[in-house]
Write a structure and sequence with these properties.
With about 325 residues, the protein is of the alpha/beta class. It has helices at about 45-50, 125-140, 155-165, 180-185, 200-205, 220-230, 260, 280-290, 310-315; strands at about 5, 20-25, 35-45, 70-80, 90, 100-105, 110, 145-150, 170-175, 190-195, 210-215, 230-240, 265-270, 300-305, 325. Bound molecules: NADP nicotinamide-adenine-dinucleotide phosphate.
Length: about 325
Amino acid sequence: MARAWHLMSRPKGLPTADNFALKELAEAPLGDGQIRVANRWLSVDPYMRGRMNDVKSYVPPFQIDAPMDGGAVGEVVESRAQGLSAGDHVLHMAGWRDEAVIDAKAATKLPDLGVQPQAFLGNLGLTGGTAYFGLLEAASAREGDIVFISAAAGAVGSAAVQIAKAKGMTVIGSARGPDKCDFVRSLGADAAVDYSAGPIVKSLSAAAPNGIDVYFDNVGGDHLDAAFALARQNARFAICGMIDSYNSGEPAAFRYIMRVIAMRIRMQGFIYTDYLPRLGEFHRDMGQWIAAGQVQSRDTVVEGLERMPEAFLGLFEGTNTGKMLVKV
Ligand code: NAP
């Protein structure tokens, strides 16, 4: 019997195991144009926390006591759709479950690029694409720029570090703890700052004595404030995420925000899906960087559908290095 995680109550603050339940799904017959997919890899992403609140946003909230969804890669086990047959691997959004019956048009057949299928949930998927368009389009980052990237040991951050290096930028990444900072340097970053060792504004000013041209924000809060403090004239900020406040819901206070005026900082929020019509450019460049070894993937794999909430909660505790995935 197929099973799916359901959201049973809306969390206040950091979610707990009680907010979720793993339930059996009713047997779903296959209609015309549909496929049955055995999920192999499931993605957990910080944006899913926002979907647990009953608020209007760029993606609808999860419904209470209904199957949750999210990015997934699986193998077609049965097909009543043209162009897809048993054995094909597909990318789709019916995650948080081990098996899904979906319309074939809601699935993308994975191209054979000689990479592991789960790469389409990471560097060749949402997280890599977010790093690529956020850095190069939202922030207009260019060769020679000094770039600060927060949560640099995470999925989006580690991709952004490597793309920035491939494009000839100077990169400073932030992460929690010496091991993650070593990892950020191993990706090619010129410097890594451990934000858990002291105020980030101090470590960033030591790592970037001449200031920064670009900030790629995954964290918000004190990281964004430090970027305001260090911004050079005409700095550009890509506002990708603010994980620091996803659970607290508290507004952050900014000591240095008035430097937006003096330094003519341009801040650009963006959503990955804004760039879906341009995925071809991303796949071309990312495919080349991966083939040349300039972009490498590191995954943190949690085994078993039963452990999906644990993997999700790990994002807020920083238990992942690189992309957090659940292997079904
Ligand atoms: P991730 O970075 O792989 O995982 C989250 C990481 O954030 C953790 O490993 C942890 O690393 C760090 N973190 C957690 N709480 C923190 C806090 N309070 N302060 C500082 N760091 C904290 O996740 P991801 O999927 O790559 O997402 C990164 C950001 O991009 C998130 O804000 C997400 O919402 C955003 N995002 C935006 C888009 C878009 O379209 N705009 C798309 C995808 C993702 P440490 O151990 O180093 O603290």
